[in-house]
Amino acid sequence: MVMGEFTQETEVLVVGGGPGGYAAAFRAADLGMEVTLVDMRSRPGGVCLFRGCIPSKTLLNVSELLLDARRGSEMGVSFKDVRVDLSKMRQWKNQVVDRLADGLKELCKKRGIQFVQGRAIFEDHNRVRLIEAEVSHVKFKHAVIATGSRVRSLPGVSFEGGGRVMSSTGALEIPDIPEKLLVIGGGYVGVELGSLYAALGSRVTLVEVADRLMTGADQDLVKPLLQHLEETFEGIHLRTRVKRVQEEKDHVNVTFEGEGEGFQERFDRVLVAVGRVPHTKELGLEKADVRVDDEGFITVDEQGRTSNKQIFAVGDVVGGVMLAHKAMYEGKVAAEVIGGQSAAFDVQAIPAVVYTDPQLAWCGLTEEECRKRNMEIKVARFPWSASGRAMTLGLSRGMTKLIGDAKTGRILGMGIVGRHAGEMIAEGVLAVEMGALAEDMALSMHPHPTLSETEGEVAEAFLGMSTHIMPSGSEK
Amino acid sequence: MPLEFKLPDLGEGIHEGEIVEVLVSVGDPVEDGTLVLLVETDKATTEVPSPVAGVVKEIRVKPGDVVKVGQVMMVFDQADESVEPKEKPSKEDKKEPPQEGARGETPSRKDRGREEKEREEDRAAEKEKGEAAEEEPSEAVKRERQKKTESSEKPSQEGPVPAAPSTRRLARELGVDLSQVKASGPGGRVMPEDVKAFAEKGKEVEEEKEAPSEARKVSLEEKEAAEGDEERKKPSMEEEAVERVALRSIRKATARRMALAWSEIPHVTHQDAADITELEAFRQKYKEKIQSQGGALSLTVFVLKAVVAALKAFPGFNATIDMESEEILLKKYYHMGVATDTDRGLIVPVLRNVDRKSVTQLALELPQLVQRTREGKIDREDLADGTFTITNIGALGGRAFTPIVNHPQTAILGLAQGRLEPVVRGDLNSYKVVPRLMLPLILGFDHRVVDGADAARFMNTVKEALQDPENLLMVM
């Protein structure tokens, strides 16, 4: 392999091989463009595949299995000896990741995309230098920056200590099952990983600065989740700040500052999940005339174009919700725009899914957002206790919720809490994007018995008459 | 009861006409059918009869005005109210008996399409009529006003316009602002047809800018302000050095038709020269005889005959292509368009059934047709249904040119100037140079319908016919 000064030219350079980057690269190649994809890892996939969505969901599925095994006795099935084999579990998770990563690399190859391992730094408006790569420079006609984000750390807290203070990356390695785990941050990462460790047997304490968990979601949807967390976590401290994290050899001392007096507690491990920051430093963006905002996010127009017209940016680096599917969508838009199409990130419903038990999913506008904007809306809820399917699954803790325009009945948003909410939210996404009316959803037949029926029923409830719940105020 | 007389739909996609002459004065009594106006549309002058019996009360047009279909031109005081005004007199006049040659031909999908289009235009015209009658502001103005009132009354957080993602993409592609589109779907949902209709309308508004009528001035001003269409409108530094000439009647029709032909037809040009020495001698011999009968035995007459012979041998050149129905329509009649240079611009009158007419008959008819064309006395029928066109630039000189096919025909034959040229006869070992009268022939054709080899064969047939008058008689 020849190392050294070697400049290549490419039509489309994609920097970063996560979902945003590879989606952009694949679409550009499919549109007939010549594409080079650069990533630090040896295979595409990015944080999502290697230390995010995929490993966490693999493990969360295992934790769901654990919960179901324990619930089984109610239904007449008892597993006497439910044991967790951590190394087997890690192996399983790594297998899943491996298979998907190989698949992506193969897709790259089949599309004729040149994949280069290395780190790209912009040197000019149309050139990058590659570090630790076979190619030293790449000159491009168009570039797509998809370098993603990294975990945010707390001031004065380091992940580089003895390993007892972990980021999500460390936590997904499941070094052990700590007896006492502190989770800092009540967003989806904290809630998910906290649930995972609780299922594995840790006593989990969760601390959050705000007065509630899952701030982006409607609180009536969060409630059943909160109920579950309260049952399975040792403690949940809201309006509480972590003042000091002191890592010792065999434990971590944490000092809290709440509304009342401060307090100190000892944990075996601490997970810091307080968000992510864009990966835009050390990229040489200023040399490429690519502007970033105060928080380090790259500013783009609705087509993903940066201040340098030849360079696009997609995914976490441009801000907004930092979700893989949003990045992929943006990646495809950027590639299509480069390909001369009039594509744009014109999206009305970005779905969000929290893989807890129960799952939480929503899309479009939330009720709270609508109220804040003084919109005239109507909200309907369908409790899963009225769903036959939920009952057969023993999962009647759940709710499906519809937010619609009060006048036209147009569906503006949907929220679901309960098992498989993530799979079901897609119907809501399609409804919102299509400008569908509640009537459209109510008149679309839903299979029985399924959880998706709750979507048809909530639309019926929106219209005033649902089969399995009594119209309000009409009980005889 | 006064009756507003609007420019009726003249069919064939004609939206406007120029008033040539007003044949009545205020106070004149008219019968149903009395000619009241001469309107020039797309190359032909149409006599417009009064739709009612009564008295001319008001005349709102003067010669030179450009009137749109549906625009009020006159007001009559009706003599008898029970008489239903004839809505579309010219439409009825227009109806011609089916051409003999076309008998037995089933209406193609294209024809149906055209009918539909006409009906659509009728509807559009109806709508415009309605507007004009109530003297309401134009749609654009209404929309603007509506928007203003809406924006002042409603909070700005109305949310995105309900439309499917595919519709939104279509809007982006057509440059349509969805919020401006009148929605026809349930719950105010914008349908793809709405976007298309709006885009079409936008085009019309563009066209109207060329000749703003009183009613539309407001909307134009607003539009200018809103759209920042300064580039075209603002006085440039060289304003005084540029003369603006409105694109009217013939020039406008030519511009539109040429653009259509050039953009739709993949043109190929095939060139050759015919030895017309013998033919010229033949022509000289009979010239005076024809002249004494009031005709003119021009070269074009012979070319017409030669072309018909070639068209019969190669019917692909006497055809139209319908991409929609994926059909080629081979015409069994031979109506030859003859490009005619007039004071007002290029007009192509049609000599019908050339195959059934003798050379003498053609020599009598052609000069008359040309004369009527130059005097502006031809009817719409004289312009319709050509199947092939001949254009002779020879009188003005020129060795070659590339004629543009007269859409929707398949081919056009251009004649440049016939010249006496040295022609080599024999082979390299034994040759002689002889002076011959050579006529350059240029065949422009639609490569979708026929191929280069077909063109060569077609041209050879024409050539051979012209080279030998006796042969021409044989193939006629």
Report the β-strand fraction of chain A as a percent range.
15-25%
Specify the biggest β-sheet of chain A: 7 strands, mixed
Structural class of chain B: alpha+beta
The whole-angstrom Rg of chain B is 27 Å
Specify the biggest β-sheet of chain B: 7 strands, mixed
- Give the overall average pLDDT of chain B: 77
Please state the overall shape of chain B, judged from the principal axes of the Cα atoms: globular
Q: Largest chain interface and its two residue counts?
A: A-B, 20 and 19 residues
CATH superfamily of the largest domain in chain A: FAD/NAD(P)-binding domain
Q: Which stretches of chain B of 5+ consecutive residues score pLDDT under 50?
A: 81-157, 210-235
Task: Write the CATH architecture name of the largest domain in chain A.
Answer: 3-Layer(bba) Sandwich
Ends distance of chain A = 82 Å
Total beta strands of chain B: 19
Q: What spatial form of chain A do the alpha-carbon principal axes imply?
A: globular
Strand percentage of chain B lies at 15-25%
Under the CATH scheme, which class of the largest domain in chain B? Answer: Alpha Beta
Question: In the CATH hierarchy, what is the architecture of the largest domain in chain B at level 2?
Answer: 2-Layer Sandwich
Number of domains of chain B: 3
The chain-level structural class of chain A is alpha/beta
Written account of the structure:
The complex is a heterodimer of chains A (476) and B (476). Helix content of chain A is 32%, strand content 24%. In chain A, the strands form five sheets. In chain A, strands 1, 2, 3, 4, 5, 6 and 17 form a seven-stranded mixed β-sheet that branches. With 476 residues, chain A is an alpha/beta fold. In chain A, strand 21 and strand 22 form a beta hairpin. Chain A is globular. By secondary structure, chain B is of the alpha+beta class. Helix content of chain B is 37%, strand content 22%. Chain B has 13 helices and 19 strands. In chain B, the strands form five sheets. In chain B, strands 9, 12, 15, 16, 17, 18 and 19 form a seven-stranded mixed β-sheet that branches. The radius of gyration of chain B is 27 Å and the shape is globular. The interface between A and B is medium-sized, with 20 and 19 residues.
